[in-house]
User: Fold these one by one.
Assistant:
Number 1:
Amino acid sequence: MDAIAVEDLRKTYRGGVEALRGVSFTVQAGEVFGLLGPNGAGKSTTVKILTTLSTPSAGRAQVAGRDVVREPREVRRRIGCVGQSSGVDVNSSGRENLLLQGRLHGMAGPELGSRAAQLLELFELAAAGDRMVRTYSGGMKRRLDVAMGLVHRPVVLFLDEPTTGLDPESRANLWSEVRRLAGEGLTILMTTHYLEEADQLAQRLAIIDRGQIVAAGTPDALKGALEGDRLRLELGDAERAAAAEPLLRATEGVASVLRDGAVLFARVAHGGRAIPVVVGALERAGFTTEEVAASRPSLDDVYLHATGHTFSEGDAAEKPRPRP
């Protein structure tokens, strides 16, 4: 049985704003699954529905074998959730936060005390366990957030943008914790807008764009489906790039072209051999490239290929939109 099964999930807010437009995916038991997309693409809305904090307008979803609409209490017993914002009480100690979270799940006595001590040890917070959380670093608070989501031993853990705002060292430490939890067989659904994070941690992922899944699979399979290399050509001006686009499309060896402002992206068989051909064709037509680079396929290329715009452009533009 899949740990999470989502079928044609839709969410329309008051005023006709469509946040989800038919999202479907499954997460296998014991898998780390990444939901990747820019801010406003629908990731958090999906998590809110799967954690019973919101109801869908249409479609269905099951988590740990329970329907999120018909059996919300049963779902909550089986899941842990770490939201984008920290849920810790900074005026209590780390241990007190864990104990309170356990009591909310019906735990008590020696079992709860032992579980809190175990989690403080596992997340390298034992030495700071009895200190006020307001004295913790950002990385320590985030590790405590994750520990609180695990107090009651859930079978599925939701991590919504878990490393947003963390410094590189704290992010790397949290990545290690996610890998450790995955190694213990915990099912994890993680939303992120960091391409590298999804590539590093997710065994499978789905890319969401404007409330729809546009690509899904393993990171390697998604990147491998894009043959050849990508050329990135910076022309310095959006109008010049628009004028050069038809010429680039007609250049021998160029399979496809996409434009993002003053930058042209070309798919070619071999980047090193294509650069002098492409740059020469543009220069003969009077277009000077300010910068050119070749790279192997990345998740950014997968997103660009699936949506027609770059990830950063989607991050700026993709907000829930009124129904046309």
Number 2:
Amino acid sequence: MIKFVHEPIFRPPQETESIQLHATQGCTYNRCKFCYVFKNSTYQIAPMRQIKQGLLGQAYEKPADSPVYLSGGNAFSLSFDRLRDIALCIKEHVPGYPRISMYARMEDIDRKTDEELRELQSLGINHLYPGTESGSIDALRIMDKGITPEQSLVQLLRLEKAGIAYTASYILGLAGRGMSSDSATKTADFFNHLHPVRIATTGLTVFPGAPLKEMVESGQFVEADEREKIQELLLFLRKLTVETVLDCRHYLNMVNFVVSLPLEQSAIINDIEQFLSEITDEQIVESYRRSSFKFI
């Protein structure tokens, strides 16, 4: 019996206009403490029949040059052969697509050879969303990320060598209260060894259903407050030297902007400094209550 994937597609904000295809559901790892998205899902691979139907159903509704996004917590977990088949199917029916994107874990990259990465890139699988989250090994261990910054560095450099671009993620506050300076410094140093086309930030939010919620309630983890998260972002900006785009437009960020670095680096640093100097803690609490946020 063919099992079709019916889970709602969870996608990065940058993929709003993309053709969105059910490729997988759930996450092969599904142990990160901060994650709430796939905790009630089982990992499942969509049959090619469903992928093709989804593609044909959207191909005539979208512009001919629409990018394509493959769903799931880490669709790059699919085998090289399956990814190649999907890319060839897309090439046949949407020949003008500029890219095929998806989420990835570092072990998904590690399981593919350099030659396979190059071939996937040549077929248009040329943009990934790897779960980098932080350059602090302590933060990654607390959240049971299952990877170290050094291991991530190796795999991301392999992507760069293969010509596959990526948007890296950075979760502000992931290390907990009092650790913002350490986290910012180590994360900036991590990215300064790489060339991400974009770094997308979110502020750590404790959602119901995430294991982190129990850690907070039991006192195992103490959250950084909103001011500390912004201070972490500010220090990160001061220490970041790589040429990239910093995208802070996610709804889980207290300050929202997108800037090109280093061109707009000084200006955005000044803006954040001014913001911190003018806003009071009371105003922060009143205007920004994470407890009221809902998953979207």
